[in-house]
Design brief:
single chain, alpha+beta, Immunoglobulin-like, Elongation Factor Tu (Ef-tu), domain 3, seven-stranded antiparallel β-sheet, 44 strands, 22% helix, flat, Ig_V-set, ATP-binding
Amino acid sequence: MKVTSSGPQTIQMAQGEPVTLDCTYTSSQADIGELDIEWSVVSPDTTKKDQMIISYTAGRRYTHGDPDLMKGVDFTATDPSQGDASLSIASLTASHAGTYQCKVKKAPGVDSRKISLIVMVRPSVPKCWVDGGEAVGEPASLRCRSDQGTAPLLYSWRRESGGPIPPDAFQNSLTGEFLISNHSVSHSGVYSCEVSNAVGKESCRLNLQAVKPPNRAGVITGTVVGCLLLIMIILIIIWLLIFKCNWNRHEKEFSNDIREDAPAPESRPNSRISSFRSGVAYSQVGQTQNEHPPSTATSYSTAKYDSRFFVIIFNMKAYKTVAGVNGPLVILDQVKFPRYAEIVHLTLPDGTKRSGQVLEVTGSKAVVQVFEGTSGIDAKKTTCEFTGDILRTPVSEDMLGRVFNGSGKPIDRGPAVLAEDYLDIMGQPINPQCRIYPEEMIQTGISAIDGMNSIARGQKIPIFSAAGLPHNEIAAQICRQAGLVKKSKDVMDYSEENFAIVFAAMGVNMETARFFKSDFEENGSMDNVCLFLNLANDPTIERIITPRLALTSAEFLAYQCEKHVSAAREEVPGRRGFPGYMYTDLATIYERAGRVEGRNGSITQIPILTMPNDDITHPIPDLTGYITEGQIYVDRQLHNRQASHRNKLTIYPPINVLPSLSRLMKSAIGEGMTRKDHSDVSNQLYACYAIGKDVQAMKAVVGEEALTSDDLLYLEFLQKFEKNFISQGAYENRTVFETLDIGWQLLRIFPKEMLKRIPQSTLAEFYPRDSKH
C-alpha cells in the first residue's frame, strides 16, 4: 500500500472558496485485507487524539465530528476504493484551517499523507475614530482597527475632501494610526482608512473637525475661587452656630434671680444627645469658666459653663464604582476606608435592595459577597452603600412559630419581628473553661436513638443519610417528640416553655419545605419551632449565612430566654472542589452547640447530611465526624428490606445501630437520669445484634441446616430486633423506659447464661417476666 499523491503539502485558500486535498493510492498484491480510509485533523497537542472527520470502511462512508462543520465535506471520487481518496471541501471557513492526514489501510499495508490547509480570511469592516480631542493647536490622532482578517493587515489613510494629506502627518501602516502633530482648521475634512491583506480589503470614513480649545486658565481660576467661597461660607455658618449656642446659654444663666448665699444655677444641655451607630459625629468645642464679679456686700459662688457640643449629621457614602461582577462577588473600586466583614447595601437600577458582606480589602478596592445573588446588577447604575456595621439579625422570643427565608426575612405573611436585640450572626466564642459537660438526656421518642445512641443535652451529633432515604420524616419526628428527661425522675418533662426547635433547611425543594411546614402545623409543635428555609432555587451563596442565622437565634433563646434548644439543620453538600478553610468553617458552626456555666439554657445540634452516592468518605461527612460527638447512620439496605412479608412495610426509621455512635451517651444515662440498667441493656443489645449479623452472613454461605442452636437464637433475635425495636411508626412516641422494656423482651430470647454483658444483680431485677419494670 502506497499513497502516490504528489501535490503541494501546504495549501492557502481564501474563505468561501472550494478546495481539494489530494490523496491517491495504489495497493499491491500482498495487500489482501479490507480497505479502510480515514481523514482526520491532526491535534497540535501531542497528548490529545486526532479528530477524525470522515472515513470509508466496508464500502460505506461515515462522517464524524460537528455536523455544521462537516457540511460540504466529502470524498471527491464517487467510489474511494478505486484508488482516489481525495477530500473536497465545498466552502472554506476559518474553522477548516489545520493539518489534515489521509491514512489508507489494507492489511498488511498502510500509508498516510499530511496536508496543511491555511484559510485566508479577508478583513472585516474597520472602525474609524478620533483618539483624544479635535482641539486646534493640539495633536489629533486618527485610529483605524479591523477585528478580523488574516495577518498581515496593512492600513492606509487618505483624505477625501479638504485637500491633500498634511505634510507633517504621520501614519503607521501596521497599527492604523494617523497622527497630526499640530491640528488646525486647514486639516479638517473627510478622511478614509483602507485595510487590506492578500484576500481582500475594506474601508471606513470619518469627519475630522477643528474645535476651538477651551479656556482652561479661566476654568481653573473659577473652580479655585468657587471652592474658597464655599469653604468660607461653611466656616461662617459654623461660627454663627457656635456663637448663637453660647449666647443662648449666657442669657439663660443670668436670666435667673441671684439670691444671697445661693449658688448660681448652672446651665445644662437641653437634651441628651444619643449616639448613633453611624452618621453622627460629636465634637467638643471647649470648656470655659466664668465667674460673677465680686461685690462688697454679698459673695457669689462661681458658675461654670458645661462643655459645648455641636452635632454634624451626614449620610452614608454611596458609590457607583462597580468594577466587575464575578459569580456571587462584586468588585468595588475607589472606596474610602472599607472594612473586612462590613455590610454593604446594594440598590439596583429598578430599585431592588440587596445586601452583601466585604470579603477582602486591598487598598481602595473591596470584594463584596452578595447574599441574594448578582443577577441584574448593572456595573454603571448600581449604587452601593457601606453601613460601617457587621451582619446582625434581629432576635426575639416572638420568632418561635414563624417561618423565615435563608436571609432571615419573614415569608409566612406575618409582620416583621419586633426585635429585642440585634446580634452578630457569627456569634461569640465560648470560653472552654465556661463550658458544662453534657449530662442530661434529650428524648426523641425513637428507640434506635434513645436506647442505643442517646443524645445528651448540649451535644452535637449529625444524622448521615442519602438521597431517597426518609431523613425528612426522621427530622420531623424528632422535632415533634423531642423533650427533656427530668433529672432524678423516671418521667418525661413535656413543659413547652423550656424547649424550642430552631430548624434550618438548606437547598431543599418546595415539596420538602411544604412537608416540614405542614407537619409542624398539623401536630401543634409549630409554636415552639423557628423555621428557616433556603430553597433549591434560592441563591447558593445565601446558604453561608442561613446556618449562622439559625444558630444566632438558638443562642438567644438558650442563653437569654433560657430555653433548651435543638438546632436541626438539613443541608445538601456540594462538589469535591472544597476550599482549604472548610474544616475551620464547619467548626465555627458546630462548636456553637453546648452549655455555658451560669446559664440554664443549652443548644443541641442535629445536622442532617445527605451523602452523595452513599459515600461516607465524602469531605463533608468525613470532616463532620472529626468535629462532632458521634453520628446517627441511616442505612439504605435496612430501608429496602421488608419488615413483614404480610403487609410489605419497609423498616422505619432505617437506622443502623452498628456504625452509629454517641460519644456522650455514657454521661446522659444511668440511675438518676434514665434508668440504672440503660447502659447494660444497650451494650448487650449491641453485642447480640452484631453476632446476629455475623450469623446471617454465615447462613448465606453454609445454609440454615449447618447452624447451631445458639446461632438460631441469634438469628431469631436479629429479626425481632429489627422488626420490634428499630422499626416503629412515624407518629409513635416511645419513652426511654418503654424502649428499655422492649429491649428486655428481646433479651429474654436468650437464657441468662448467654447475657454476659449484664451484671447478675441487674439480671436478677429485670430479667424475670414478672418484673415491674
